[in-house]
Amino acid sequence: MALSQRQQLLQQQKLSPQQIQMIKLLELPAAMLEQRIKQEIEQNIVLEEDHSETEGDEPKEISMDEYLKEDDTPSYKTRLNHYSKDDRPRSFQISGGRSLQDSLVEQLGFRNLTEREMKLAVFIVGSIDTDGYLRRDLQSVSDDIAFTLGLEVEVEELERLLAIIQHLEPVGVGARDLRESLLLQLGSQSLDTPAKSLAYTILDNHFEEFVKKHYERMMARLGVSEDEFRAAVQEIQRLQPKPGNLFAEDVDGAPYIIPDFILEYRDGHFDLSLNSYNIPELKINRHYLDVIRQMRGKSDERMSEQDREAVQFVKSKIDAAKWFMSAIKQRHDTLMRTMQTILDYQQEYFKDGDRSRLKPMILKDIADRTGLDVSTVSRVANSKYVQTSFGIILLKSLFSEAMQTVSGEEVSSYEIKNILQQCVAQEDKRHPLTDEQLMNILNEKGYCIARRTVAKYREMLDIPVARLRKEI
Q1: Is this structure's pTM higher than 0.85?
Q2: Higher pLDDT residue, 324 or 415?
Q3: Strands 391-394, 402-404: pairing kind
Q4: Exposure check for the chain: N or C terminus, fewer CB within 10 A?
Q5: How many CA atoms lie within 13 A of 197 on its CB side?
Q6: Taking the C-alpha atoms of 65, 66, 72 and 78 in order, what is their torsion angle to the nearest 10 degrees?
Q7: Which residues 6+ apart lie within 8 Å of 271 measured at CB?
Q8: pLDDT tens digits for 1-16?
Q9: 100-119: per-residue pLDDT in tens?
Q10: Number of C-alpha atoms within 13 angstroms, CB side, residue 119?
Q11: What is the dihedral of CA 315, 318, 323, 327, to 10 degrees?
């Protein structure tokens, strides 16, 4: 088949690099915006924070010769970070507790282990996760030891060392699953009461049935009364399902939310503001503007090729700085415009935080009122928070579907979820309400809802099925 060339006229929609960066800026929450601005300041030499200058701190004039000399400095000497593109950023912690692995290794030092056993035990400890579980099979650990340490080790030897680790503190660490961890914790106690003995039997021989809460079947097989079985269950509930959580772990694991908006309600009026705390004000360094003015005074014949390149470089950085400052302002305007519309739409809710007053609201409702695209509203609502007198609220949580009642009135799905939570909280735990029974209750209250919708809302509220809510 012969090769040929031809021209074809097509219409395509493409985003410019500036538009892509604007979209990314819009998605950033307040905490990440501060980092993004500081990153831009590091990358753009003409951009700096706008600190108010005091008298007597006049900036020194910089000559063109000094500027050109600075350009001769090797780039590696002016870089603020010396990382490769494959390096992952590290977070520096001000303080932190001792890790689980450190504690286990320290305890192993008090055991009478040979040098080889100590190496193998430390390797096993390194495979234990933050919850305190060894979720890898010992054969895979053996293969890793052979590859990493160059030691041939049998699974039986690792089993013996793992048994030693499982007798360290916290009790239950090093288990392969929840059942083994609970058995280790209960086995470390003296089974001196009928309740503890029965609890150990339940975990050892009837764990699957216990997890599925087939209580009547278990009581019949074990031949115990309801009171005896209840006492055993209480002993199991005192155990720690994640023994590793007893140790202080990564400080970054606790999320800190910085609100993007601050909303105050006083004397019947709302005061909405954008949280600009720690967000630096930007300006263009006037030294580089002076460089451009100095060069404009020279004719083209008097300018060297190096001067032209310097001017072109400074101009490009100034243009980039102006665009970035404009994008930040546009981001602020878009956020305030969207949040103000949401506030107008949900005024009754923002007065006291009563979720029953939330109106049905979807992204298109706000997009139509603001004149923005639905995707823009979605980016604003997805990761932004507003601080109110009743807590910090994720904007995305304010959007809900509209459900219709028998009378034709539209209500928010949050109202139905609240009723579901109330029904589950007030139900008889011996005979929990099924999804069909919950559907009938809602239908009696005038809400037209199907059983599958009840199941969907129940899962969204992290409410288990009726069988798993059963108690004795």
Answers
A1: no
A2: 324
A3: unpaired
A4: N
A5: 7
A6: -160
A7: 263, 264, 265
A8: 678 888 888 776 666 6
A9: 888 899 899 888 889 999 99
A10: 12
A11: 170
